[in-house]
Write a structure and sequence with these properties.
Endonuclease III, domain 1, 56% helix, mainly alpha, 12 helices, binds iron/sulfur cluster, 253 residues
Length: 253
């Protein structure tokens, strides 16, 4: 259960608090952990299963995605051979559980299984023995896996201690003041990763939790539009919040 954390709201008659400078990243992650609690362990840390989990659903919440993944495991199996030899109707019924465009996802699941069989002998664990840059290149051969997805696999499999970020976590760190918006997503992603690098704990447990907590924060409070700053435990550490306080002060003068 999340604790209430109201510091100041736009309806407040008091002057807004004067923001302080941002705390080190490790303190920020500790604050998020205190606020949200410890994240659940990842659903899977197997590289092939992580790719299936990413592709089994589209634009649905975590719970629905995991239900579709469980159905795939229970009714078909999670090996490349299981998926290649499964009946279309069965895969389609499972893909329906993962939201819209189920037929396209069946095709993707088949493609994933075929890539795994043809290029990696059906076992992606061999990819994890490659140097990091080659492992990333290999993982990016699969649908829906770009740099962030490949880095997440390398992190969750405890292969490379990198702070992989999906879009929610990236947005939170940008608003806190790490890195800057660049012309494209990958430029912004690199900018944020370079900015946080000196503050990272090179510890897999910490990095995995940081990934999960930043993602959850971006999903629940630090939303893309209209972030709920009034409830946020990071209010006083946040550049975005500082800037909105400053503009409100100027508007009141
Ligand atoms: S204060 Fe607002 S913008 Fe900053 S991290 Fe919290 S929710 Fe996001």
């Amino acid at each position: 259960m999340r604790s209430s954390y109201l510091i100041w709201s736009t309806n407040d008659r008091r002057e807004p608090p004067v923001p302080k400078s941002r705390k080190p990243l490790q303190e920020i992650i500790t604050k998020l952990k205190t606020f949200y609690g410890s994240p659940r362990p990842p659903k899977t840390a197997d590289p092939f299963e992580m790719i299936l989990l990413e592709n089994i659903a589209y634009l649905v919440g975590d719970e629905q995605r995991e239900e579709a993944f469980d159905a795939l495991r229970d009714r078909v199996g999670l090996s490349p051979v299981d998926i290649v030899t499964a009946h279309d109707e069965k895969l389609l019924e499972i893909a329906h559980r993962g939201g819209m465009q189920p037929a396209a996802r069946v095709e993707k699941l088949r493609r994933i299984a075929n890539i795994a069989l043809q290029e990696f002998d059906g076992d992606l664990k061999s990819v994890l023995d490659l140097p990091a840059s080659k492992a990333k290149r290999a993982l990016k051969k699969f649908p829906s896996i770009g740099d962030p997805g490949a880095e997440k696999i390398l992190l969750f499999t405890r292969t490379v201690p990198v702070l992989a970020l999906e879009s929610n976590g990236l947005r939170v760190l940008l608003r806190l003041g790490y890195g800057e918006e660049r012309k494209n997503y990958s430029g912004t992603y690199r900018s944020v990763q370079e900015a946080v690098e000196p503050e990272l704990k090179k510890d897999f447990d910490w990095l995995i939790e940081a990934h999960q907590l930043l993602r959850r924060h971006g999903q629940e409070l630090c939303k893309r539009s209209e972030p709920l700053c009034v409830e946020c435990p990071l209010q006083l550490d946040c550049r975005f919040y500082q800037e909105s306080v400053s503009s409100r002060r100027r508007a009141r003068q």
